[in-house]
Write a structure and sequence with these properties.
By secondary structure, this protein is of the alpha/beta class. The protein has helices spanning about 20-40, 60-75, 90-100, 120-125, 140-145, 155-165, 185-190, 215, 270, 285-305; strands at about 1-5, 20, 50-55, 75-85, 105-110, 175-180, 200-205, 220-225, 245, 250-255, 260-265, 280. A seven-stranded mixed sheet has the order 1-2-12-9-8-6-7. The chain has a three-stranded parallel sheet with strand order 4-3-5, sandwiched between helices.
Length: about 300
């Protein structure tokens, strides 16, 4: 972690919390992945990730391209498969079947969200669980809830990595999650209640029907915001010295910004930074770690598919 100063914030704002630098920590993970890629290449295995991109939605294209760049940086082969926005669902499922059968492909990822005419659940369930590097397949979700080894969802898996690599111990901490989504909040809850150095937490899950929400959030040693509402978590909802993890990615209008909008989290960063002990910024917090964990999943899948675990 690094202490923030006025030059690191817009409008010269100074806060007191330490910043959990996702770029710095993800660089550590990426270095480990590059080492793992070299080990696999030496054994004749070239880790390969296939990314299916549907349509021309700008945000989806940006996310997919960032993953492809990360693959190139770490020596992982990336295959981008682009399909039209109106592609029939069956054509997409057939494409996934081909990638499942392709022994040279170790990870299959369909960039979400999908067009309305395609059933996301059917698509996710079609991916071979052994190649499900997003960690969304019901088989992997079930194994996670049981504490079994599996491909973990990337953003949830990034959180204990971020916290522990900052020197913050997780066992015994009270974690409060605001949100109950299937891709973020629920997997985080299942991860942190497991046994282990990066878990063993007491976890409270809050949502839109939680009465007196602030009564719960102020009890948190670690507060995780995953609700999709800009700046929803304010200073009065946070215990002094708490660790605050912001999973929000909300675009709000800002005429002074070059694109007319800017990215903010679910946490009022400036206000909460006055009371928190540590906080993730948006951008530059959890986001870079998500991509790093995807790369880690791809090498893990390659090792398992080729039965190289423990070798």
């Amino acid at each position: 972690m690094s202490k923030i100063n006025a030059k690191q914030l817009d409008q010269g704002v100074i806060i007191h919390a330490d910043i959990i630098d996702g770029n710095e920590i993800s660089a550590q993970v990426r270095a480990e992945v590059r080492k793992e890629v070299k080990s696999l290449l030496a054994k004749g295995v070239s880790p390969t990730l296939a990314i299916i991109l549907i349509g021309q939605k700008p945000s989806s294209r940006v996310y997919a391209n960032s993953k492809i760049r990360a693959c190139h940086e770490m020596g992982i082969e990336a295959r981008k498969i682009e399909l039209a926005k109106d592609v029939p669902e069956q054509d997409l499922l057939d494409q996934i079947d081909r990638l499942n059968r392709d022994t040279s492909v170790h990870g299959v990822l369909v960039q979400l969200p999908l067009p309305h005419h395609i059933n996301s659940d059917r698509v996710i369930e079609r991916i071979d669980p052994a190649k499900d590097v997003d960690g969304f397949h019901p088989d992997n979700v079930g194994k996670l809830s049981l504490g079994l080894d599996c491909l973990l969802p990337c953003t949830p898996a990034a959180i204990p990595e971020l916290i522990s690599r900052c020197g913050i111990e997780l066992p015994g901490k009270h974690v409060v999650i605001v949100g109950r989504g299937n891709f973020l909040a629920k997997p985080i809850m299942n991860l942190l209640v497991q046994k282990g150095n990066q878990a063993d937490c007491t976890v409270t899950c809050c949502h839109s029907h939680t009465d007196h929400l602030a009564n719960y959030t102020r009890q948190a040693d670690i507060l995780i915001a995953a609700i999709g509402v800009p700046k929803f978590i304010t200073a009065g909802m946070v215990k002094d010295g708490a660790v605050v993890i912001d999973l929000g990615a909300n675009h709000i209008e800002d005429p002074e910004h070059s694109h007319g909008a800017r990215l903010v989290g679910d946490v009022d960063f400036n206000g909460v930074g006055e009371v928190a002990g540590a906080i993730t910024p948006v951008p530059g917090g959890v986001g870079p770690m998500t991509v790093a964990m995807l790369m880690k999943n791809t090498t893990k899948a390659a090792r398992r598919i080729h039965r190289l675990e423990g070798v």
